[in-house]
């Protein structure tokens, strides 16, 4: 993964609360602190992170948006929880790194895709929400087709974060996007990293779910006891972010040919670290 003639994209799965934010921060500062011993120069990577669960597990505050920007994240994608912190409406139009899913109907605030300049290249990123077992939004098929085609008039590199529940929807939509010219397709939402990273048709990097970044011993990043109580009783209960002393980082590293926008290599990253730093901000 060290070809100087390629673009490297480092994509982090759903960041859950303070443990997830700090895990991403620390990995970007020093991957070796998580036991990741491969030669990885973060400065060579365009970094994308899904942030819809970054602020105490639900939504994203402006304070946390600014902090994550300072960590070195170049683009933030999202999903169905992006609106959970109501202050999002106060700053999303000025948050130049943040995407909300493109298939929310107009005139919903924010934008669903952007083209970023990085190390002399242009990288298009689209955030998309699935519809199977999810709150209904606009159908993604024609919306994303048109957006891929638009971006490809500017750059051959088009990256998609598809935030969706159903595996079949993710696989089928990835194949559809590959036919149109998608460079890399990262599934998110389940917080469980899948072991099916591949390159579709020798051009589109793919994984069904990139996983999550956060506390390792909870339930997809949330506290076990509150999750258990909801299953046992069926009663609503406020989820709390898990706070154990081990954090997990789930990410995907892709290498892309900038001339044709094809993925030439893809690798999952799954690592953890004990004794996370205790800090007060949520």
Mind explaining what this structure looks like?
By secondary structure, this protein is of the alpha/beta class. It has a domain at 7-99 and 184-274: Metallo-dependent phosphatases (Purple Acid Phosphatase, chain A, domain 2), CATH 3.60.21. It has 6 helices and 13 strands. The relative contact order is 0.19. Mean pLDDT is 94; it is low at 278-282.
List the helices and strands and how they pair.
Layout: E1 7-12, E2 14-15, H1 17-29, E3 45-50, H2 62-71, E4 75-77, H3 88-91, E5 113-118, E6 121-129, H4 140-151, E7 158-163, H5 167-180, E8 184-188, E9 198-200, E10 204-207, E11 212-215, H6 224-233, E12 246-257, E13 262-274
Parallel strand pairs: 1-3, 2-11, 3-4, 6-7, 7-8, 8-10
Antiparallel strand pairs: 1-12, 5-6, 9-10, 11-12, 12-13
Helix pairs in contact: 4-5
């Amino acid at each position: 993964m060290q070809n100087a003639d390629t673009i490297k994209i480092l994509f982090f799965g759903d960041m859950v609360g303070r443990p997830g934010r700090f895990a991403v921060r620390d990995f970007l500062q020093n991957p070796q602190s998580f036991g990741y011993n491969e030669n990885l120069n973060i400065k060579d990577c365009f970094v994308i992170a899904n942030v819809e669960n970054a602020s105490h597990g639900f939504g994203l505050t402006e304070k946390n948006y600014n902090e994550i920007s300072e960590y070195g994240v170049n683009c933030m994608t999202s999903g169905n929880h992006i609106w959970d912190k109501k202050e999002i409406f106060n700053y999303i139009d000025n948050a130049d790194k943040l995407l909300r899913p493109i298939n929310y109907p107009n005139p919903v605030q924010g934008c669903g895709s952007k083209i970023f300049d990085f190390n002399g290249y242009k990288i298009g990123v689209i955030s998309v929400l699935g519809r199977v077992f999810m709150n209904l939004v606009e159908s993604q098929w024609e919306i994303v087709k048109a957006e891929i085609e638009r971006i490809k008039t500017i750059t051959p590199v088009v990256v998609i974060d598809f935030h969706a529940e159903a595996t079949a929807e993710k696989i089928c939509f990835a194949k559809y996007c590959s036919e149109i010219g998608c460079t890399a397709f990262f599934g998110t939402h389940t917080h469980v990293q899948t072991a099916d990273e591949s390159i579709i048709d020798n051009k589109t990097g793919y994984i069904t779910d990139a996983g999550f970044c956060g506390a390792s011993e909870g339930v997809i990043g949330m506290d076990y006891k509150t999750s258990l109580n909801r299953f046992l009783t069926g009663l609503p209960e406020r989820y709390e972010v898990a706070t154990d002393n081990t954090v997990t980082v789930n990410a995907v590293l892709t290498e892309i040919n900038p001339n044709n926008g094809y993925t030439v290599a893809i690798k999952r990253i799954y690592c953890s670290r004990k004794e996370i730093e205790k800090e007060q901000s949520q």
